[in-house]
Amino acid sequence: MSQMLSGATRVHFIVGDPIAQVKSPAGVTEAFQGRGRNAYVMPAHVAPAKLAAWLDGVSLAQNVDGLIVTVPHKFSCFELCATTSERAAFLHAVNVMRRNPDGSWHGDMFDGEGYVAALRNRGCEIAGRKVLLVGAGGAGTAIAHALVTGGVSRLAIHDEDSTRRNTLVDRLASLDRCPVLAGSTDPSGFDVVINATPVGMKEGDPYPVDVSKLTAEMFVGCVITAPAVSPLVAAARALGCGTTTGADMFARVCDLMVDFLLADGQ
Prior knowledge:
By secondary structure, the chain is α/β, with parallel strands linked by helices. The protein has helices spanning about 25-35, 50-60, 75-80, 85-90, 110-120, 140-150, 160-175, 230-240, 245-260, and strands spanning about 10-15, 40-45, 65-70, 85, 95-100, 105-110, 130-135, 155-160, 180, 190-195, 220, 240-245. It is built from 9 helices and 12 strands. The chain has a 6-stranded mixed beta sheet with strand order 2-1-3-5-6-4. It has a 6-stranded parallel beta sheet with strand order 9-8-7-10-11-12, with helices on both faces. Strand 11 (about 220), helix 8 (about 230-240) and strand 12 (about 240-245) form a beta-alpha-beta unit. The two termini are about 20 Å apart.
């Protein structure tokens, strides 16, 4: 049962620029209350230049327990955390923050772990698989790290920005977990193909990979949530591929964020 807003309510924010498109406030609030917590998530539209000042002000309120971080603040919020997980430290990005006992902020990043969980929920175990990942931005970087630490046998990364791609390839290769190399839009020879770019959201967008070279044995995933079934996922399903959608990822990331935000026992 939904709890009434009161003076005892614990407050969390989701911060982004823009913010009107996010659906997290209702879903995470429902998850909090499903666990018996009198807690709400409120949206905050904050420009990058004002982020640090905004966080300083919000931190003065003793009933503000957590932040969910969305575009474009995931890298900037990392810099504003006093402590982070090892994963966030490697990625230099966070998507969720909670209070330390001294009132400072502790951050973590669950985009990658959430995506791997979504793959497994759809029957795709990544251990020992050869993966092509398109996109080396915020989401792509987190997913790439989770794939490498999750036991893939080989990871190829494609991004139109070759400098960004090469930087990510080199950093992941330094972990010495598996071969990590620059890829292309050709999915031939891969077991799993993932789009971690916005390509496919707009009418008339090209496919992020050459769909003519997909085969039914491949598993295909996409981070896009609108449309609910991206053109890439639709094309893969037509071939009989297993698939996962952006909504699948969001649900698993939400679970992990709620666990993290409530882990302090408040």
